[in-house]
Amino acid sequence: MSINSDNFSILRDLPPYVFSVIDEIKYKARKSGEDIIDFGMGNPDQPTPRHIVQKLIESSLEGRNHRYSASAGLPKLKLAITDWYRKNYNVELDSENETIVTIGSKEGVSHLMISMLSPGDVVLVPDPCYPIHSFSVLIARGRIKPFNAINDDTLIDNIEKGFKTSPKPKALIISFPSNPTTQTVELEFFAKIVDLANKYSVIVIHDFAYADLCFDGYKAPSFLQVPGAKDVGVESFSLSKSYNMAGWRVAFMCGNKEVISALRRVKSYLDYGIFQPIQIAAISALNETQECVEQIRNTYSKRRDRLISSLSNMGWEVPPPRATMFVWAKMPEHLRHLGSLEFSKKLIKECKVAVSPGIGFGRNGDQYVRFALIENEHRILQASRSIKKLFSK
Ligand SMILES: Cc1ncc(COP(=O)(O)O)c(C=O)c1O
């Protein structure tokens, strides 16, 4: 018998990430000793706040925390989650039936798709979007129906148009503040989504990964704040960005109890829960001082300002985002013909600056590149100087 890629039909739906082209160039350049200023992946560069790490250390020393944990999450963590919703959004949740802890949002959304979809079921997803929002559907053998999400003004209309098409979508995945577009919405937007979801019988999954990374006085609303949201959907929140805990893999999903129950059932077969000391440290993150969240937000806000003003100085005008840890920059007009992948290759080869090409997030992203604000202000200035040189050639 010879085993080859034909044995794994899923691989046809999962081509190598577009981003791997840039990663490969980055890897080779670094190997040959070059300094690459890396705005590629949304991977926080700062450490997890000390009191959270301290809690992890203490609870790791307790032997009883080394056993299998609860697949749906520790009851105390689920209580901390319901408190977090009450404190921040005035939303009441039943900690047992309306919350579940997941091994990061990616795991939660992916297993939710497996829990929800039958082969061929259609899910409406934004184009451009965070890649797992579409690939989780394909992994679950569903079908993606993309809607154009590039312009704020047409979002709702495009979603409704998508709901009306045949075969009818079973679910809608959205995420605001958005990665990559940095779009933000107000509560009325979610109220319209709830109305449409009721009208067309569609389940809504809202990914709220950037809930806390909002600037200039803006506060992103939670989907669950809309009366009746729990009847139509769920929301996922991650500790990865708000608490610099990306490597810890801890997130939660809350809302409709039938959806949560399906995910809980599937996860009960697949995992034994996150390492208990991580869950205990996550309780500290949610319950103790939120000053660290404020500091993290300030860091991104300053980096955003630095990048936006440096780009503007070289004639590259990009509106400052109100949220997220990204700058979504439309490519300068005279370079748009290159497409985002070629432009990104040029930036890394000629300027030693790595960004994510917009095409990696969907066809509609091809006139854009995404800067993740994971380099400090000094490095942002350094990167801007080399991009300016390229532009002035
Ligand atoms: C929209 C969105 N959702 C989820 C995640 C990942 O969250 P987690 O680390 O909890 O899997 C990211 C990370 O970049 C993201 O941008």
Task: Give an overview in words.
With 393 residues, this protein is an alpha/beta fold. It contains 14 helices and twelve strands. A seven-stranded mixed sheet has the order 2-8-7-6-5-3-4, with helices on both faces. Strands 9-12-11 form a three-stranded antiparallel sheet. Strands 1-10 form a two-stranded parallel sheet. Helix 5 (131-139) links the parallel strand 3 and strand 4. Helix 1 (19-31) runs parallel beside helix 13 (339-351), helix 3 runs parallel beside helix 11 (276-287) and helix 4 runs parallel beside helix 5. It is globular and about 60 Å long. The mean pLDDT is 96. Pyridoxal-5'-phosphate binds next to helix 4.
Helix share, percent: 40-55%
Mean pLDDT value: 96
Class by alpha and beta content: alpha/beta
Shape: globular
Low-confidence stretches: none
**How many helices in DSSP terms?**
14
For the largest sheet, list the strands in their spatial order. 2-8-7-6-5-3-4
Fourth-tier CATH superfamily name of the largest domain: Type I PLP-dependent aspartate aminotransferase-like (Major domain)
Broad CATH class of the largest domain = Alpha Beta
Total tally of structural domains: 2
Number of strands: 12
CATH architecture descriptor name of the largest domain:
3-Layer(aba) Sandwich
Ligands in the structure? Answer: pyridoxal-5'-phosphate
CATH fold type of the largest domain: Aspartate Aminotransferase, domain 2
> Which sequence of SSEs, written as H and E, runs from N to C?
HEHHEHEHEHEHEHEHEHHHEHEEEH
Quote the distance from N terminus to C terminus.
Answer: 56 Å
